[in-house]
């Protein structure tokens, strides 16, 4: 059994939706908070909790911005449909905003098994805030919602696949069985000697998993073998 945990911002949505929303709609004070996070003075949960109330215009402005400026990786929708057809649980885990993710997926008519992200709340006076109450409360890395918890709480033991691109995926990469990585996460995995399969589109991820499933059927499963074959296929077609 395979279970996939996939990042959203920078992985499914390009660019990062939260950063783009802050740039477009927030009071400029969000940048000072961001700098404190970059210097390690606050963790990402505190950073997000302080930045989101600075967004102006409410959900209507957020929705309008998303529809005008944010697109999804084109290869994700067919990949999600393929996972559903093969009975593979595809879950999104993000430090971003649940309503943002749901809106973009609904717009593109993409279905996934579940979404794990911070929830946007409207507070008195029209201010926005983030609700973290559905998280377990434990965190290994100071993330807004620690993805490691999703990789450790399952009562069964599927092959746990992580797909990601950034800092919020660092600690989960240590706990996943297989990591598909690009950008900052790929650099981190190489620096820390964490085995990772480079990818650019979800077509590569699908090709690797398809090869694994075929090899499993004949009793010799390995995702690394699938990665080598997928990469050889890409080179041959280039």
Write down the CATH topology: Rossmann fold
Radius of gyration: 18 Å
Q: Percent of residues in helical segments? A: 40-55%
CATH superfamily membership: HAD superfamily/HAD-like
Can you name the CATH architecture?
Answer: 3-Layer(aba) Sandwich
Multimeric state: single chain
Strand order of the largest sheet: 6-5-4-1-7-8-9
Order of helices and strands: EEHHHHEHEHEEHEHEHEHH
Total of DSSP H or I helical runs spanning 4+ residues: 11
How would you characterize the overall build of this protein?
- Strand 8, helix 9 and strand 9 form a beta-alpha-beta unit.
- Helices cover 46% and strands 18% of the residues.
- It starts with a strand and ends with a helix.
- It is built from 11 helices and 9 strands.
- The strands form 2 sheets. Strands 6-5-4-1-7-8-9 form a 7-stranded mixed sheet, with helices on both faces. Strands 2-3 form a two-stranded antiparallel ribbon.
- The longest helix has 16 residues, at 202-217.
- By secondary structure, the protein is an alpha/beta fold.
- The model is unreliable at 232-238 (pLDDT under 50).
- The protein has one domain (2-237): Rossmann fold, CATH 3.40.50.
Give keywords.
238 residues; alpha/beta; Rossmann fold; two-stranded antiparallel ribbon; 9 strands; 46% helix; 18% strand; disordered C terminus
């Amino acid at each position: 059994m395979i279970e996939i945990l996939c990042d959203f911002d920078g992985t499914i949505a390009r660019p990062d939706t939260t950063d783009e929303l802050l740039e477009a709609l927030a009071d400029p004070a969000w940048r000072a908070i961001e700098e404190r996070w970059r210097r390690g003075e606050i963790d990402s949960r505190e950073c997000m909790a302080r930045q989101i109330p600075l967004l102006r215009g409410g959900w209507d402005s957020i929705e309008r911005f998303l529809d005008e400026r944010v697109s999804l990786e084109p290869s994700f929708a067919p990949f999600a449909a393929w996972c559903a057809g093969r009975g593979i649980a595809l879950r999104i885990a993000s430090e971003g905003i649940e309503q943002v993710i749901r809106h973009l997926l609904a717009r593109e008519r993409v279905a996934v098994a579940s979404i794990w992200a911070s929830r946007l709340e409207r507070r008195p006076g029209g201010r926005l805030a983030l609700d973290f109450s559905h998280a377990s409360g434990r965190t290994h890395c100071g993330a807004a919602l620690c993805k490691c918890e999703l990789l450790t709480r399952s009562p069964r033991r599927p092959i746990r696949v992580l797909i990601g691109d950034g800092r919020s995926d660092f600690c989960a990469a240590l706990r996943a069985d297989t990591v598909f990585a690009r950008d900052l996460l790929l650099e981190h995995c190489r620096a820390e000697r964490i085995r990772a399969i480079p990818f650019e589109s979800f077509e590569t991820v699908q090709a690797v998993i398809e090869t694994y499933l075929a090899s499993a059927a004949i009793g010799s499963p390995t995702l690394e073998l699938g990665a080598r074959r997928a990469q050889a296929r890409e080179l041959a077609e280039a």
